[in-house]
Write a structure and sequence with these properties.
Radius of gyration: 26 Å
Helix content: 25-40%
Number of domains: 2
Distance between the termini: 20 Å
Strand content: 25-35%
Amino acid sequence: MGPSKALRALSAPTILTLGENSLVNKVLVIIEWFCALATLSIGIKWYLDPDGNWEPLIAVFGIGIVAVDIIRRNRSNKSTLTNRFESEGARIQHRELLRKQIQEEIYKCRAEKLRQDVIVRDMSRVDNYPDTSEAEEGISSWFRVSLLDTYEKGAVLGLSIGGLKECEGGYRYVDSINGEKSDITALLMADVPYDSIEAVNMDGDEYYYFPHIYCYFDFDGEPYERKWFAEQIDQPHGRPYFRKIAEYDEVIRNNPVDGDLHFG
């Protein structure tokens, strides 16, 4: 089953660079040692001179130690694209392991004409699965899409399939309510970096036998660093080519603000 059939079956915050992250850790260690040694030194002076006014200095450096600990805990508890790996080597190993696993799954599905469905799961809400909640705001904690391809930095997912209409600025959604016809059938694609994927389970589970991809939703509450529309072009050797039609943001800008247009 091709991606189109599989899809029909589916009904920036500021962050530190790796160098900056390492530098901050070193600064925190220096501050922590300075405060500890200063507190020890003042403690010795206080012992030798009990009448001195040492309490304020002890309090200041003690607060410094506590502040460094709080900062370190907050930084370690929040996983970002930059502090997720201990080193650049660990990052590369992670990418290569996922690249191999994901490409093997894609090639197997293409060769055996299998469904290309996968379950994407949010790492911060992983225990919500398999439950669903209509009261949940924003993107769901887990959902089914298609695993279509890879790119240099990650996996390419197929979110949905629908029609686009040509317009002055490129393409827009279709006014299907009033019977307007689309000019081109397009796939809504999404790029998910390997760095935003914690792990994959290619065997599925008792609820869904499709692969599960555990992601950090790093990009404004979504796992996609980019969304774009493409046309699938089948090739003789069996590997489809996805020709870019337009960027998602471009199409959204072309939609009239007072219209009721749809992609689907």
